[in-house]
Amino acid sequence: MTSKPSLRQGRPYLAIPGPSVMPDRVLQAMHRPAPNIYAGEIVDMTASLVPDLKRVARTDHHVAIYISNGHGAWEAAVSNVVAPGEKVLVPATGRFGLGWSEMVTGIGGVPEVIDFGKRTPWDLDRVAEALRADEGHEIKAVLAVHVDTSSSIRNDVPGLRRVLDETGHPALLMVDCIASLGCDRFEMDAWGADVMVTGSQKGLMTPPGLGFVFFNDKADAVRKAMPRVSRYWDWSPRAAPEFYYEYFGGTAATHHIFALREALTMIHEEGIENIWARHATLARAVWAAVEAWGADGPMELNMADPAYRSHAVTALRIGAPHGTALRDWVDERLGLTLGIGLGMAPPGDPAWHGFFRIGHMGHVNGHMILGLLGGIDAGLKALDIPHGGGALEAATQVIAGV
């Protein structure tokens, strides 16, 4: 029997929730010799990144740039404001909330975790209860993940700020926007976030390797009162460098700078409001297809309530072994890579094979989303996984604005 030919030749499509698809303009910007790292173009280019990063974050305050991934940005943020023995509150809605709490433990802090599970957003009444119980104000900060990349839950950051204000608690509001910045609406100053962290590899459309910590004057006052801060993680020289090397604590991330400069130019050409609207429409197209498939099959959205679904990533449940089987089929046959179901089942548990995720963040458009949905539809048919019909029609109606 002749095996079916592969259809994966051509440009592969990495439809995972980061690293996201990199624009050709970004890739081309990196394709150049290394510059002088002591003077000239790279110095001016780095300085130009700062105001444009602030425009994306919607802040008038400060930003420090690190050669790191998102985990490095986590550690940088907490290292500047949490001393050993000090407490933080972490309302968790997936693996990444728990991960940030583990980072606090690693630097000697004491996290108090309110685990809301993998399918439920924050219950702000429970958060308020924990803050009121802290009569001595021992909680130094609340660590909040805006979009948890594992569960695809999008949490209510303005609501959390309101709870802090209503309870009169002075804790810093620290927000992880690694999955959401440049995809979901986020407004640092208007929403009252004191610290925000993100990475280069998702909505900022740049290769993994840069982490960012945005902070306001309130957070900086806490930093200045710290007994000590790691010289490398200290945000003070990075945000206000006297010498160029201080931006990066050493040698500059030269080619990431070229990439990020072009990516920020593209973001500002489109306009952040338009970017938010594009991501919202494409996310609704994904949801419409999934709901159609799930009408007569095991596939379902991890987050049932649309009000709490991310516009950047969608986590799905389909039952073992269908998740892994579907991911393998679309990769091997079509060159389409879907995300694993990160943190949805313990390692080694066969149930792990029942989850997958779709990344729809950054440099994505209508035909890319329709293409990946068509690939999933083909996989469901090829693998004889039960599913409802009309998924592609439902998605195209969203794209068409019907």
Give structural notes:
Helix content is about 40%, strand content about 15%. By secondary structure, it is of the alpha/beta class. The strands form three sheets. Strands 2-10-9-8-5-3-4 form a seven-stranded mixed β-sheet, with helices on both faces. The chain has a five-stranded mixed β-sheet with strand order 1-13-14-12-11, with helices on one face. The protein has a two-stranded antiparallel sheet with strand order 6-7. It starts with 12 loop residues before the first strand and ends with a helix.
Low-confidence stretches: none
How do the strands line up in the largest sheet? 2-10-9-8-5-3-4
Compute the gyration radius: what is it? 22 Å
CATH class label of the largest domain: Alpha Beta
- Mean pLDDT reading: 97
Report the CATH superfamily of the largest domain. Type I PLP-dependent aspartate aminotransferase-like (Major domain)
